[in-house]
Structure formats: C-alpha cells, structure tokens
Amino acid sequence: MIRKIALLLAAALPCLALDLRRAGIQIEPNAGATARKAAEMIAQEVEKRTQIRLERNQFSDAPVIRIGRGSGAADGFTVSTSAGGVEIRGNDDRGVIFGAGYFLRQLDMAKQRVTIADGVHVTSAPKLAIRGHQLGYRPKTNAYDGWSVPMWEQYIRELAVFGTNTIELIPPRSDDAPDSPHFPLPQMDMMVEMSRIAGEYGLDVSIWYPAMDPDYSDPKTVEFALNEWGNVFRQLPRIDAIFVPGGDPGHTEPKYLMALLEKQAASLRRYHPKAQVWISPQSFDKAWLDEFIGILQTQPSWLTGVVFGPQVRGSIVELRERVPKRYPIRFYPDITHSLHAEFPVPDWDYVFATTEGRESINPRPLDESAIFHRYSPYSSGFVTYSEGCNDDVNKFVWSGLGWNADANVVDLLRDYGKFFIGADMADSFANGLMALERNWRGGPTDITLQQFQALERAATPQQRLNWRFQEALYRAYYDDAVRRRQGFELAQEERAMDSLRAADRLGSLNAMDSAEREMAPAFPEPGRVFELAEALFQSIHMQLSVPRYQAIAVDRGANLDAINFALNDGVWLRNQFAEIRALGEEKERLARIQQILHWADPGPGGFYDDLGDVRRQPHLVGELKYEEDPDFLKSPMMSFGRLPQQGWRVSWFTDAETLGDTPLRMHYADLDRTASYKVRVVYGGDSPKTQIRLMANGRFEIHPFREKPAPVAPVEFDIPQEATASGELTLEWTKPSGGGGNGRGVQVSEVWLIRR
Fold first, then answer.
1. E strands present in 613-698
2. HEC states along 581-615?
3. What is the Cα–Cα distance from 282 to 106, expressed in whole angstroms?
4. Which of 186, 232, 422, 479 has the most CB atoms less than 10 A away?
C-alpha cells in the first residue's frame, strides 16, 4: 500500500503547480542579443493577463526565471522547471525567443495568478527551417493599414511566441492604392519600423517585391528599377530575403526577369550581404515555364531558391522534379482567400460565397492541416500568402505545424485559445473555431451560434474587448444570420412560384404582381453583426464596410455591405417579369411563365444537372479526396461568377470548374440506344472571354472553341446519334492548353441532356 501511494505521488508530482507570482527574471551573461527582448516579452505578457509585474531578481527567496543559452538545432530550446524556478535555454538568439514563447504558452494565468507545472523538461526544435507569414501594410488588407507601430510589435511578438521565424513585408509600390485614409505612417516609414521590430526579436525579414514595370528589356526601365528597389534596400535595417513573383502583378518574360534579378541581387547584397533571392514562376504559361526551367539548368549562383504559390502551372511535386536540386522550394500557400484562390473552400455553400465573400474571417484548421501535410514534404518551409488578420487562426495553425508536423490541430487551437482568450475558455473556444469551419461544410449554424453565445455570456469585459474573440463572434452571428435569411427568401420564392402556377387562372399580369408582393418583405437586419463590426473597427481598425469604415472594396473583406445580398432568384425573376410584361400577347406571356416554372425540367428521358450544387450534380466525374488534391489541380471544384444580386440566377452564379489543362467531364449511362439527344448548357463563371470547347466521348466535337455567350443564357447543341448508340455518353469541356495566369475558365453552371 505504501509503495502504491508513493508511486501515485510520484506520478502526480509533474502536475504540481509552481507559483511564480514573486518570481524574478535573470538573464545570464551568455544569453545573446535577444535575451533582453525575451525578458521584456515575458514580463509584459504576464502583466497583461495577471496584473503581476515580474522584475529582475525581485525577491531573494522567490523562484527565478533564468534565460540563457544552450546548444542544439537551429531555433531550438529547452525549458525546464524545478522548485527553484524555470530555466529557458535557447540554442541561438531566436531559440531564446521561442523558448520564452513556449514558456508563456505553458503558464496558467489569471488575475493575480501565474503558475506553471513543476517537473517540466522540454527540449524542442522545429520541423521546417522557414516558418513565415506575409504582413502587408497596404490598403488591401482591410485592417493592417490602420495599425500603429505598437500594434505591429504586438502582432509580430505573438507570431514569435508560436514559433514564427520570418515575416514578409510589401514595398511602398505594389498592385495597390498608393495611400489609405487609415495609414498612421507613410508606407516606407512603417516598413522600416517593421524591419526593426523583427530584427529585435531575431526574426528574418523577407520582402515580396513584384517587378511591375512594363519592359525590362529596356535599359532605362532596368536603371529605374535598380534605383527604386535600392532605395528600399538602403533604408531597411534588416533584410534576409526578397521574393519576386513572376506575375500577378507583373508580366515579364523569364530571360528579362532573371537578368533584372541578377542585378537586383547585387544591389541588395551591397546593403545586406547575406540576403537571399527567391523567384516564383507565377502566371507563366507553358512556354515561359519551360524557358524559366531552362535558365535554372544553367545554375545561376545569385539565386537562392524557387517559390511555389498561386498560379504556378502544375503542382509543387511537378515543380520539385523539374527544378535543379541545388535550389530549395519555398511554399507560398494562400491562407487568406475562400474563393477564386489557390485553395478555395471545398463545396462552399453559395449562401456564404454570396455574402461573406473572398476575404472573410476564415478559420479553416482542418483544411490548412490537409494542405500542409500534402505539400510540406516538398519544401524547405513556407511564408504564407495573407491579406490581413481575417486569416489569423490559419497563421497560427501553420506556425504550429511548421514547428511540429505531428501536432494535433485541436491541440493547436487549444493553445491558441489559452494564450489569446484565456485558460478558462481554451477548450470551448477551440471547439467553437472547429464549428465555424463545419458551418461552411453545411453544418448547423444555429448550434455554432449557441456555442459562441454561451462563451459571450461567460466572458469577462476584457475578453469581450479581445479582437480575436470579436472576430469569432462576428463569424458565428454572420453565418447564422445569412443562413436564416436564406430560409426566409427561399420560402418567399416558393410562394412567388405558387402565384405563377396560378397564372392561367389569375392572368399573367396579376400572377406576376402577386409573385412580386410575395418577395417584397425584407428580412430583419441582424443588429448584433453590425455591433461586432463596430467593435472590430474600434479594436483593430478592421474595415468591414466601405461606407462606414472606408474599406477599399466590398470584395476586400468588407462583407458587412453584402449581408443583405439576394440569396434567391428574386432579382432575376423581377427582370424576367419586366421582359414578360413588355410582350403584347397573353399567350406569349403565359408561355414565358411556363419556362420559368419548368426551368430545370429536361423532359421525358432527359437529365438535368445543376453543377454548382453538390446535391444536384450526379453526372459530374472525377473528384479526388480533398487531402489528395486540395488545390483542385486534378478535380472539379465549386466556383462562382456574378452574384444573384447582379441579376443572375443562383444556378448561374455557381458552377463546376477545372483549372489549367484539366478537362471538366460528365458521364451518362443507361441512355436509350435508339434515341437522339441534344445538350443545353449554361456557361457561367468569372472568365467570359475564355475560349471553351465541348467534345463527346473524346471523338465528336459538339462545338469548337468559342467564347461564352454574353449575356449569359442557355445554348443548345445536337449530339450525334453515334455518340449515344452504346447507351453511354461522356461530355468533356476544355480550354486551349498551355495557358498561364490563374488557369480558370472551364466553368459550367447547368447542363440538360434532352431526348429529342
């Protein structure tokens, strides 16, 4: 019995809490350049959460937090606790910061309380060498442009606490407006400050530097660019790398772009001798990509490596196979956009795509984990593509996985919730973030909202003022508001259709008048969403509205302005009614109303697919698991064109799309072998000028390459009887091969296979 009790006590000892309320901070002489910053970080972050100020050598009989140097892998550290206090030993300057960050994340902090488990002994080093995030002080980012120097230091510090070792800045001239009404400092001045701050924490500074001038074959253009970029290089106290995208913005043939960058590399290294130079073949078509790879085969010594990111032809796996081994691949994953992006939300419901849009608050922990695990084995690390703090959760998921690729995503979210919201809400906040991702998969938004309302009721005043807490609340309330409004508007539309079904009895004009009355009442405005938008503007200058907060554009995250966008076919129906009323004959008007009522009816022996609705696309072919193809390079995906608000049907706004040279296919079986068929198609999407061709069974050209009809409308084509004589039919849409840019264009909204 005594032995059993002893074993139980021994097992429990590591869980005993070490009280650090009276602890002092001691910096050892060998601690390195960042130790003072690490001590300051510990003292300030503890005081914010506890009202306790940890000073150096505060009490002789109190525990001591010792900061010093150890040895081991780059960026690594050891943190250990004992009755005498805590030891934080970094393997290098950055390791000291990361060790201090780990220590902070292990603390149990509340008002007038700060403890850590006794018996901790953790030695840790990161999996990936590069773990970074783009931080653009520019108008597009819809919050960052209002941040002051202290706000930037706080955010950079928080990234460092979770193991980020690189930040990427954007120069004053980019593909953006030259000024913002929210700027507290000019762009160049803030860029200098952010470089300085990163240096104080030992973090690397990269610059995303687009080559945007029209003609780099002109020596005068090259001279201008060298002077402009050199002026930036000269002013920044720290630059460790520049990354030049091959396009978007910019569009320069590789031989001229590489010649420019060789000169820029020499200019950069005059001021920052060890700085690296990276390039991506973004937007290159096949010919330019082949030319680029050919130049790499000459192994230019000034180039550090190649970046894989949005709009690069093929996959990172294919790029790694083609690029000489001496050049590492750096991953540039888009974590900020939800549609028309490198990694769009899979099967995203049109309700959220219509309203929340491309740059909404978007915690996607499971998606980000899938992307990381699919592609990180082929890279030396990552710097994420970000357009603001809407993707804040995703940044910390990537930083966590970059340090420990085996980390459980929910554990990462608990760590996030504990440090930023509070230990009392760590589990519930993590579960709430997971629920927000499920909302976009068709989850019940009302249950998610109830979770966050419970958190809201339990929150302290300080937690309610926390911008990360406010962001999650905004998403939960917004999701539920638009989902409830969808139900309201679809019910209105169904009542309107009932009115149209009575047109033979009521008369066409009376039926349309009745239908419009059914669709007239507006859904009540969700006031709490507007309150939270105001709170976010006050806390972090988040601009969720153009007229209210001077955001740069609705599609740049200002989705408060879209919260009442149409979620049914009401606008399209009203436009149809206007055309029908202009017809002179009642018979014609009634015929048009019948077309509306039977829109999706393919007739006897026919088939209809709404390719933008995952529930109504039974003949769509070829979807891999998300974990296998998260950027949809080989699979069809859900995509979106013009909004129902702009007069399109919902079924036109949504479409199935393939990227690059991947064909979009539909397959039909069990057709009548003796029958003849025709196909009716609506080509939707956001790329109206893209040429598209339709083939049947790989042999029969149903129509040659052609632009999509403008305005959008159904088009019909005969199918040769020989194509269906076997009882099966495969339809295949393609665009011209070898193109560059974003790869979009093969976008099909609706398909009817009609038996003639």
1. 637-640, 654-658, 664-668, 677-682, 692-696
2. HCCCCHHHHHHHHHHHHCCCCCCCCCEEEECCCCC
3. 41
4. 479
Query: What CA–CA distance (Å, rounded) separates 595 from 151?
Result: 58
Rounded Cα–Cα distance for residues 10 and 189 (Å): 56
The single-letter DSSP state of residue 522 is P
Give residue for tokens 């074993």: 7
- Strands 276-280 and 241-245, sheet pairing: parallel
User: Could you tell me the CA-to-CA distances from 405 to 280, 611, 624, 628 in Å, in that order?
Assistant: 25, 36, 23, 17
Torsion sign, CA atoms 231, 234, 235, 238: positive
DSSP, res 13: G
Report pTM.
Answer: 0.96
Which pLDDT tens digit goes with each residue over 271-287?
Answer: 999 999 999 999 999 99
330 in Cβ contact with 306 (< 8 Å): yes
Measured distance CA(116)–CA(149) in Å, rounded? 32
Low-confidence ranges of the chain (pLDDT < 50): 1-14
Which residue carries 């209105």 as its tokens? 492
pLDDT tens digits for range 614-666: 999 999 998 799 999 999 999 999 999 888 788 899 999 999 999 999 999 99
Whether omega before 711 lies within 30 degrees of 0, making that bond cis, reads yes
